[in-house]
Every structure is written in C-alpha cells, then in structure tokens.
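Figure S4 source data
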Amino acid sequence: MSAIADARLLAAGLAALLAALLFPAAASAHGIVAVEDLPIPQWLFVWGASVVLIVSFVGLSVGWQRPRLERDEWRPVAPWLSRLLVNRVTEVLAGLIGVALLVITVWSGLYGTEAPGRNFAVTFVFVTFWLGMVGLSLLFGNVFRAFNPWRAIARVAAGGFRLIAGQQPPPPLTYPERLGRWPAALGLAAFFWLELIYAPPGFEGIQLSPYTVAIATLIYSAYTFVGMALFGIDKWLDRGEAFSVYYKMFASLSWLEVRDGVLGRRRWLAGANGWGDIPGSVAFVLVTIGGTTFDGAAEGFLVEPVNTVNGWMADLGAGPVASLRIAYTIFLVLTLAAVFAIYWGGLRGMDSVEGSPPLRTLGRAFAHSFIPIGLAYSVAHYFSLFVFQIQAQFTYLLSDPLGNGSNLFGTADSGIDYTILGAELVWYVQVGSLVAGHVIALAMGHDKALATYGDVQRATRSQYWMLALMIGFTSLGLFLLSQANA
C-alpha cells in the first residue's frame, strides 16, 4: 500500500477517533468559553482543528517530499544594517538596559508596596520579561543575549579581572557534557513552581509578593554568577541558565540570527534543526509544555484531586500552606510525567517503523518539532493576560514602580483598557494559536522524518505517530481552555 493511501486510511480512522474524543456534547458540557453568541457553534472549532491537522498531514505526505529545513541557508544581511544593529555600542547599551531593569526589579520588590498589582517587580518578571521576551525572540532572534543582565555583569567583572591580572584564567571546572541542558530544565521547573505553587491557587493567606520576587531574583542571580564563575560565562548561559536557554529555544524558530558578530537571515524554523542534540534538550521543551499544561489544569479538573491530597497532607500534620504546596507539587510532577509519557510513547511507536534509529536518537532528533507546541500553549494560555498587563507595565507601574504615589512620567493615573479585547477575539487567538502551532510542529516533524528515513513512504508511516501526538496535545490544549473558561 502506498504512503498516500496509508495516510488517507489513517486520516479516516483518526477522524472517527476524534469524533469519540471531541464530540460536540463534550465541548458544550465543558463550556469552551464563557460567551454564548459566538459567530459559529463552539463544537465547530473542535472539529475544525481536527480537520486542519488531518488535512495538513495528508498535504504534507503528498506535497512535501524532500527535506527543506535541513540545509543551512543563513545569509548575512546588508553590511550597513548588520553594523548598525550589531556593534559594541548597541551591545553595551542593551546590557545597561538589562542591568537597570534587574536593579529596578529588586529595588521595587524590596522597598515598594506589597500589593502585587501596584508594584513593578511582579508584572515585569511574570509578564513583560517572561512572556514579552518570547515574542521578541521569535521575531528578532536571540535578543535576550544582548540584554541579559547576568551576562553583562559577568563580562564587566571578567574585563576588570583581565585589566588587573593581565589575563583571564580558564574556568576552574570543565562543564560535564553529559549534563547538557538538564540544569536549565530544572531551573525552568523551579520557575514554574515559584510562579504557580509558592502562593497556592485559592489560598488567601499567602501571595506571591514583590518582596518574594525580589529575593528569588537575588538568589537566582547568585546561582547564575556561581555557575558562570565555575564553568565559564558562555558555557553556563548555553547550558545551565534557564532563561537564556528558554529564549534561545524560541529564537531558533526565528528568521534572524547573529553569527560571529554578523546579522543574517535564514529560513523560518530552520534554526531549530539539531536543537535537541544536546542532552537535556528534550526535557527542557517538555517542561515548557508541561508547566503551561499544569497551569491550565490547576484552574479546572485538578481542583478536586488537589483538595483530596491537601486533606491527606493536613491529616498527616502539615500546615495549611505546606499541605497545599505539597499537593500542587505532586500534581505538577505528575503533569510533567504525563507529558513526558505522551512524547516518549509516540516516539516508541515511531521506533517500530523499519529503519528507525535508536529511541533516544529519535527523541533528540524530533525534540525541536515540539518547540512550536510550547509556543502555542503559551500564546493560548497567556495572550489576554499579556495584552492587559502590558498596559499596566508601561503606564502606572512605570511611573510609580514602588506603588508609593510617585508619577515619574505622568502616567500613574492611567488604567487598563479591558475593552481592547473581546472574549470572541481571545477565543479565536487561543484556538488559532493551538492549531497553527501543531500544524507547524507536524511540518517540522515531517521534514525531519524525510531526512531520517530517506524516503517518503517510511517517513510518512513514521509520522502517523507524530499526528497522533499532535492530536493528543491539541485535544489537551482545547480541554484546558474549556476548563479555564468554564
């Protein structure tokens, strides 16, 4: 049977499966959005997403028959433009801005109001920095490298040491290559824990205060400086510093990249090829997906299980805050384990195709194709939060970072315009980002399969499992949206 015929049969089977998993009644029961008059029925979104994935899979099988993202087609931009954007002056200015923002974050967190909504620190860390830098990385490449405050401070310190000692000694330790990006993956998981669990959802007695954010920032800064001092600045930033790895991951999808001080352009998505070759990269992208998955699940179907475990912890003598933290931590670990299981289960199926490389090699080879899913989950879950809170960041929080009544730029009396987004538009963006992210992931996986298996037929058969993974993650994303908006 030909690969195309196989694809058509699979499409029919998956359509039936989706009908069982995502039938209209289920969508209606979960209350996909809190809007009753969408222009088209809610269930049609679910069917539309499913059809788009299946049609995309068949279209890729028929029309994409040679690898297109494997070749390195990076080309420098016009020399004048590269010199204008990438030079010593702009690098110093970007570093100064990054350091200034780090100082303001710590200063406002330590000495400003404890009200999170009126203090610069909380919104900057969890909205402007955490979410905004993802968009900048996708559009303009790895811009965080230039603005990274820890890199800027470390480079100044290294330059001062060279000036005093006449030379800079090599790092005292050689970074163990087998560790790869595992330290960054653990750092990312710790950030999710701070954001989502330190102040347990629904518990009014404790909140993620600006002071806590400032202390966490200082602790992480010290940890980063120690890592750079022990293993070298660039090595630690590329392996162990969670935010550098996080933004570089999304920048790999971008069309812009700086090489040896020269700005160049490349094919969109092509920069991600080979991203998973470093140990720990698979874990990193799956933690990215799993952390956002947990955030959505904690607002919906995990509430009752968490309450049950919370009761058990309380019976064992844990205090009210500790018991909730333990309960949510358990379910964060379980959520991450479920995402890992889905990924490796799909890869196990792919491994059954004749001519497949070892499972670990497959896992690393296809890890980059899940980066768009991490991006899609982030956009779907945080889009409206970002649009609303970024208004606060650049109006009253900028003018009054401490929340003490100052008005530095005359915008302290501004508010947030919640009418800028309607519920329907938010829903369209959420569903659209989920579908687009998974379609792009399918395309990237198909391209890698062509390079891995060498012929269209085996590549297509291997991607049956990738399609199943995409449908699984899309279904999960839609379900979480239904829970969050119910």
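Figure S5 source data
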Amino acid sequence: MFQIKINREKCNGCGLCAKIHPENWRIMDKKAHAVKLKVRNMGLNKKAMDSCPKKAILITQI
C-alpha cells in the first residue's frame, strides 16, 4: 500500500496531476486533492507526483 500526501502550501493549483490521472486527482479551491489517499500501487499517481512543478505531492509506502 502507498499513502499520498499533498502539501497544500506548496501546491499552486496548476492541474498537471489532474490532467495526468483524472480518476484520482481533482483541483478544488485552487488546490490539488486526491480522491484516494491510500492506493495499492502508485501507477499514474507516481507520474503525477513526478510532474508536479512545486513538488507538493509525496507518495510513501505504508
């Protein structure tokens, strides 16, 4: 299992995460929100994390 954390102070609401993985990412109140904070595999969430220009997404194994 993996846990997704978003640093909302760093997030600039660019929406790249939502474009890469629209099934799990939404932009609400001008900030990124993950639909699922715990996932079995990183999949496209890793690509969303890697593309974040502010490095506001962190995925860790739990």
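The chain has a mean pLDDT of 96. The chain has one domain: 2-61.
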